[in-house]
Amino acid sequence: MMNNKTVNTQKLVLLAILTAIVIALQIAAIVTRPLFPMFSITLVLVPIIIGAALIGLYAGAWLGLVFGFVVLISGDAGLFLAVNPAGTVVIVLLKGALAGFVAGLLYRLLAERSKMLGAIAAAVACPIINTGIFIIGCYVFFLPLITEWAGGTNVTTFIFLGMIGANFLIELAVNIILSPTIVRLIQFNQDRKTS
Questions:
Q1: What is the pLDDT of residue 43?
Q2: Is residue 61 included in any domain, yes or no?
Q3: Are 130 and 103 within 8 A, CB to CB?
Q4: Measuring CA to CA, how many Å separate 98 from each of 64, 77, 128, 138?
């Protein structure tokens, strides 16, 4: 058995590693975007889900916040920052932090019944929350800009099909496909704690 100090140190080390992975994956996504201009897939949700499940909901929120911070400082939200800096900062930080927090909360609530159910629920919720907050933010802070971008077409259709469409579906599919791996990582972590 490990004492609390050892467990806390291990959690802190794991959080640091996952933080570095979130930063690296988001930077890689930004750097490779010119190769895939039609897609802006957020792969950082996987380590956010893992952190939320292994460490807890506040770790998930932290990792989501780091994701948002990297998006802001990289210039990836530049078009929105130019129009409404405060609204952009709120949306970008809030969507990541809430996605991680809710993923951790769902995992905690459902994992007692089934780790697989908890991991799948977290994997599904994370991109839904991330994208949902983005959509709400578009309506609250950027409706005139989005209307202009839509060029006379229906704004809602433009947001769903033009801005998030395939990206969201791919993110959701990746998270669901990786859910069994997340469960195995959690089980490995728990087995290691008991040995």
A1: 78
A2: yes
A3: no
A4: 7, 18, 10, 17
- In angstroms, rounded to a whole number, what is the distance separating the alpha carbons of residues 126 and 119? 11
Q: Is residue 152 part of a domain?
A: yes
What average pLDDT is seen over the chain?
A: 88
- Beta-carbon contacts of 6 under 8 Å, excluding residues fewer than 6 positions away, are none
The residue-averaged pLDDT of 173-183 equals 81
Classify the C-alpha dihedral 146-169-43-185 as positive or negative: positive
CA distance 130 to 111: 22
CB-based contact 86:57 (threshold 8 Å): no
Residue 34 lies in a domain: no
Tens-place pLDDT, residues 15-50? 999 999 999 999 888 887 776 655 566 778 999 999
- Structural domain including 110 reads 4-28+41-194
pLDDT at position 75, please? 84
Q: Which H or E run includes 38?
A: none
Q: Is pLDDT at 100 greater than 90 in this prediction? A: yes
User: What is the CATH number for 63?
Assistant: 1.10.1760.20
What's the number of domains the chain is made of?
Answer: 1
pLDDT: is 184 or 172 the higher one? 172
End-to-end Cα distance, the chain: 7
